[in-house]
Amino acid sequence: MRVLGIESTAHTLGIGIAQNFPPYILANERSKYEPVTGGIHPREASRSHAENLGTVLKKALTKANITIDEIDAIAVALGPGMGPCLRVGATAARALATYYNKTLIPVNHGIAHIEIGNLLSGFEDPLIIYVSGGNTSIIAYKYGRYRVFGETQDIALGNLRDVFSREAGIAPPYIVNGSHVIDLCAQRSESKEVLDLPYIVKGQDVSYAGLLTSALKKLKEGYKLEDVCYSVVEISFSMITEVAERGLAHTRKSEVLLTGGVSASQLLDEKVKKMAESHGVKYYNVPPAYAGDNGAMIAWTGVLAYLSGVRMNPQEARIDQRWRIEEVDVPWRG
Ligand code: FE2
Fold first, then answer.
1. Is the separation of the CB atoms in 119 and 250 below 8 Å?
2. Ligand 1 centroid to 159 CA: how many Å?
3. Per-residue model confidence as pLDDT tens digits over 168-219
4. Which residues does the UniProt record annotate as the domain Gcp-like (predicted)?
């Protein structure tokens, strides 16, 4: 069976097509809203998604070399995310499901990140480090659901990196030749010394807001941009790696999966890899095309959910901006 998945929770509009037999993923098309200045404006992003939806949908079907008739169900990320953006995907999914008489499958965005990671890695039960512009969580499966074993108390790791870079005047663009500008800046630090900045880990949670404020203050005080970048990167990555390590010891998982947009950072990859190796557990970093927000992950999770009997009446498909992963049963596991 085949599922078409729609992702529109933030800056990416993604449409993917997946099936329940190899090669599993048939298409993973997208358009990305990139603000010229500042951060993501939810309404502008949603307008961009609405404008591009038809084109991306057509591209996905062409790539998979199928027609809409060969699709069994429409999966859509109903949350968490930005309201106006989520509404574009939800509206499109309701329309497609109703007009073409397809089953509608609600998908939680965070769970989709995990399931595509499981598919690609072949992992069965990993500890997940999910780090992106909107999310920073340590997750593991326990008793029928994915549970959060640590998260940010304020801003997400990707948000810290983007806002710092923007305020420091080195972004946008945020990504240059596949690397985030803050990582490139950090690599140019000559001292490679970590400045005195807040390293805030509370129990299993992290807090990045204080680090952001203090780092910007250091710039104003005249510290070298490269040294501040280096310190922000070192401290923020060490914080998340520390809570991941404790999560690993606590849950006793034997696999570590790194995903989300920030997983593309080579510096984070090295840190987490070292931590996993020191515990003798397997490690997999999801490749960028599937680690950042994408439609294939929604389609694939749709396949798993569909086969477990998850369905939703199109009229009841409402978005939930704060839909936490612990609220979702995952009958395809366990
Ligand atoms: Fe995401």
1. no
2. 12
3. 999 999 999 999 999 999 999 999 999 999 999 999 999 999 999 999 999 9
4. 29-300
> How far does the centroid of ligand 1 lie from the alpha carbon of residue 11, in Å?
10
Instruction: Tell me the per-residue pLDDT of 4-44, one tens digit each, with 9 for 90 and over.
Output: 999 999 999 999 999 999 999 999 999 999 877 777 799 99
What residues are paired with 12 via a beta bridge? 32
Q: What is the pTM (predicted TM-score) of this model?
A: 0.96
What is the CA(219)–ligand 1 centre distance, in A? Answer: 30
Distance of CA 222 from the midpoint of ligand 1 (Å): 35
**Known binding-site residue numbers:** 109, 113, 130-134, 162, 183, 265, 293
Residue with tokens 């596991």: 333
Tens digit of pLDDT for each residue in 52-99? 999 999 999 999 999 999 999 999 999 999 999 999 999 999 999 999
Backbone angles phi, psi at 230, to 5 degrees: -60, -45
Question: 12 CA to middle of ligand 1, Å?
Answer: 9
Which domains are seen in the chain, by residue range? 2-114+292-333 (3.30.420.40), 125-290 (3.30.420.40)
Q: Cite the annotated binding site for substrate by residue number.
A: 130-134, 162, 183, 265
Distance (Å) from CA 224 to ligand 1 centroid:
32
